[in-house]
């Protein structure tokens, strides 16, 4: 079941509204977002990661924010990413870093963004940590892969995300053999020219790229709350004698916590994507756009306050 298209379009429109983002900062996390966003600062996020680690879960932290239009903002975001890596190291939590490059100046200058990324990935390397570059909308896809290619000339502790609804995903998987990838279905609204629109085709392509990346011997993060996909992956890795150390499951903070614990008990690596920060509104709206269950989930949280 997916949202009716008009409602999905509405939530995606809200996610890109700067005015609504500004207003949301005044509301705080009072509209159900506190269930899926781990606070506004590093301290609260690290504390939550520590709690999740105690439950057998590993994590990745994402300081929310995107589409900055000044070098000053991008440099501030870069420093915050480095500060987050410092905090992860000093606290001893089991956690990686995820980030969006539009927050680091991708729309200002690719070279400027690459310089910022080198600082972040270099810091992570010193701490023996890993940086995941989130994939954003289609207009940034090739830019993201180009910068990743440059970074991987010097660093092996960086990877990105491939979205199964994009028609180019199969070819990208081939080109990224040996790269640690998070594989997702995709959360942005894209045209039929570049993306599959039919859910069954997206699901089929998703499982196909998972199989291809696993069979290539590459580290694969399967980011899904779909229990059917997860069961198919478990069956596939057993049939093909793929070691558990070559893959992990990933889910969003606050979602399917029962299934997360079930996978931990079965001995699989289960990583929780933990977002935090002041700029939480766009992320929250995209989660609402993805599935009708998420809307009901947020409303329950709001009514319980």
What does this structure look like?
This protein has 305 residues and is α/β, with parallel strands linked by helices. The protein has a single domain, classed as TIM Barrel (Alpha-Beta Barrel), CATH 3.20.20. The chain is 50% helix and 13% strand. The chain has helices spanning 5-15, 18-27, 42-54, 71-91, 110-126, 141-151, 169-175, 199-215, 227-239, 257-265, 281-290, 292-303, and strands at residues 58-63, 95-99, 131-133, 158-163, 181-184, 220-223, 247-252, 270-276. It has an eight-stranded parallel beta barrel, surrounded by seven helices. Helix 4 (71-91) packs parallel to helix 5 (110-126), helix 5 crosses helix 6 (141-151) and helix 11 crosses helix 12 (292-303). The chain is globular. Mean pLDDT is 87; it is low at 297-305. It holds the Pfam family Pro_dh. This is proline dehydrogenase. It catalyses: L-proline + a quinone = (S)-1-pyrroline-5-carboxylate + a quinol + H(+).
Please give the structural blueprint.
Blueprint: H1 5-15, H2 18-27, H3 42-54, E1 58-63, H4 71-91, E2 95-99, H5 110-126, E3 131-133, H6 141-151, E4 158-163, H7 169-175, E5 181-184, H8 199-215, E6 220-223, H9 227-239, E7 247-252, H10 257-265, E8 270-276, H11 281-290, H12 292-303
Parallel strand pairs: 1-2, 1-8, 2-3, 3-4, 4-5, 5-6, 6-7, 7-8
Protein name: proline dehydrogenase
Cofactor: FAD
Keywords: FAD, Flavoprotein, Nucleotide-binding, Oxidoreductase, Proline metabolism
């Amino acid at each position: 079941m997916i949202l009716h298209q008009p409602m999905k379009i509405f939530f995606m429109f809200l996610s890109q509204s700067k005015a609504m983002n500004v207003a949301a900062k005044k509301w705080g996390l009072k509209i159900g977002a506190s269930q899926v966003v781990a606070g506004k600062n590093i301290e609260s996020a690290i504390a939550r990661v520590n709690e999740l680690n105690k439950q057998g879960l590993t994590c990745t932290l994402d300081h929310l924010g995107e589409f900055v239009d000044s070098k000053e903002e991008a440099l501030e975001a870069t420093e915050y990413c480095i500060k987050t890596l410092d905090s992860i190291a000093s606290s001893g939590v089991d956690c990686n870093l995820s980030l969006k490059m539009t927050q680091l100046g991708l729309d200002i200058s690719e070279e400027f963004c690459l310089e910022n990324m080198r600082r972040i990935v270099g810091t992570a390397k010193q701490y023996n940590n890993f940086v995941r570059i989130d994939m954003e909308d289609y207009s940034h896809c090739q830019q993201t892969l180009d910068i990743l290619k440059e970074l991987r000339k010097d660093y092996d502790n960086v990877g990105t995300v491939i979205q199964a609804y994009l028609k180019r995903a199969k070819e990208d998987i081939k080109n990224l053999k040996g790269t640690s990838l998070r594989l997702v279905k995709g959360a942005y609204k894209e045209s039929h020219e570049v993306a599959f629109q039919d859910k069954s085709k997206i699901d089929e392509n998703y499982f196909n790229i998972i199989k291809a990346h696993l069979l290539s011997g590459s580290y694969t993060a399967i980011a899904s709350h779909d229990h059917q996909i997860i069961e198919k992956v478990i069956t596939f890795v057993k049939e093909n004698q793929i070691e558990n150390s070559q893959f992990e499951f990933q889910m969003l903070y606050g979602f399917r916590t029962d299934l997360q614990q079930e996978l931990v008990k079965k001995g699989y690596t289960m990583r929780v994507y933990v977002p935090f920060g002041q700029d939480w509104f766009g992320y929250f709206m995209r989660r609402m756009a993805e599935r009708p269950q998420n809307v009901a989930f947020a409303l329950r949280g709001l009514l319980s306050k």
